[in-house]
Known about the structure:
This protein is α+β, with helices and mostly antiparallel strands.
Amino acid sequence: MFRKVHVRLAALCAGITILILLVMSCGYLYISERSLHTSSFASFQNDMDTLIGSLEQQTIITHEWLTRIEDNGKYLINVIDNGIPFLYNERNTPEQKQLFETAWDVYDNRFKVEPLFSAYDTWHMEYPFSSAEENGNDYYACVITSERNTGTFQVMILCSMKPLLMQIRTQRLLFLGLNLLASVALALFSWYFTRQLLRPLEENQRQQTQFIASASHELRTPLAVILSCASASIRAPGEERMHFLESIQSEGLRMSRLIDDMLLLTKAGDCRWSIRKESAEPDTLLLDTFEAFEPVAAERSIRFLIELPDEAVPPVSCDPERIRQVLSILLHNALSYTPEGGLVRLRLLYDGKNTKFLVTDNGIGIPDEEKKKIFERFYRTDQARSEKGHFGLGLCIAAEIIKAHHGRIKVSDTPGGGSTFTVVL
Ligand code: ADP
């Protein structure tokens, strides 16, 4: 399911970003091409202004002057003197002659201008012009008309737009290449980005599935016992029935405790956990828990000690009920995983900044590779699997409580064997 969502999300993300990129690139390209056209035409008009200035100073138009203004083939020139083509025009190739014919037609039909005031004896017109033939070139054209004593003298100058169009084509290709590269990069980024986005959701889904599977597994055992005891109790005689009913009750209690734990964890996962912080005396918290567990330790023949610092420890801001719950989980574990005759110590330390609660035992200990895993839901080490009433949820609950207090919980080895759990507030 996540793979499908990932593919769709990546495609959507890449599609939108690439579309935005393309629209922006096309917009930029359009503006850039327009400004290239404008500046190129303006430069042509500038050249023509200079040329007209020079033409006005010429009394006789010589071939040398015309050759000079041709500027090494940059411009094509066609001259008409009193309606008769100038001899200079013979230098043009047949195609160029054809081109000028069309250009003159276009000029006569669409652009021909007369001076606004008769005082002007030279006037001119610049316009873009496209040759009629197929694959014909585009040109800027300028027609200069000069009234002289000898009659009307007209010069047509054509400047090919080929270099400009080449420049535009190169720019388009460059844009296309860059856009392709950017699109590939965006597609890869979208793939990676959506992967990162979905990873926590996927992990969450995996944890939930695992949680449900483990919970069902844990619930199945007591339920099976209850069912078999119930059916056995139907046939059993009076006194024996009592024994089955007791089993049903104890397994029912086990199930109820497990369900309570699961509900607690679900609330923590949804952040619906309310922590009611108040100022609490850490030594009182420790003494309360110690007293509650003394009978359990005595029943299991485990030496149980409490160690408090000599100087007074300042109150801590915490939810005392929840901290008691954490200490109970740690003590319950310590007493469960320490053999008869062992030692469990409950200690309070204060280093001037942090308050630390330590639960130390000299029991079976926890291998290094398992130290992190024991805080996961339903995780139990191999040695602990046989322990009844242990579902592998206690430390997970403890860790959530401490996390809600912005504190830390860690486990280390007790020198000489066993485990030490430290809670830092
Ligand atoms: P459980 O209810 O099974 O004890 P916990 O989450 O409290 O669940 O603990 C997870 C596992 O960590 C236990 O099953 C056990 O394997 C290991 N563990 C916890 N505390 C101790 C301890 N004091 N000594 C040895 N192993 C421990």
